[in-house]
Amino acid sequence: MTRKIRLGAFLPGGGQHIAAWRHPDQPADGATSFEFHKELAQTAERGLFDAYFLADGLAIAFGGGIEGGNAKVAGFEPVTLFSALAPLTENLGFIATASTTYEEPYNLARKFASLDLISNGRAGWNVVTTATESAAHNFNLDAQHPHAFRYRRAAEHVEVVKKLWESFEDDAFLRDKESGRFFDPEKVHYTDHKGEHFKVRGPLNVSRSPQGHPVIVQAGQSEDGRGLAATTAEVIFTAHQHLATAQEFYRDIKSRARAAGRDPAHILVMPGVAPFIGRTLEEAQAKYDRLTSLIIEEDGIALLNGLTGGTLDLSGYDLDGPLPPAPPTEGMKSRQALIRQIADENNFTIRQLYQWIATARGHFTIVGTPETIVDTLQDWFENEAADGFNILPPWLPTGLDDFVELIVPELQRRGLYRTEYEASTLRGNLGLPYPTNSWTVSRQPAQAAE
Question: Which of the pair, 319 or 125, is modelled with greater confidence?
Answer without folding.
Answer: 125
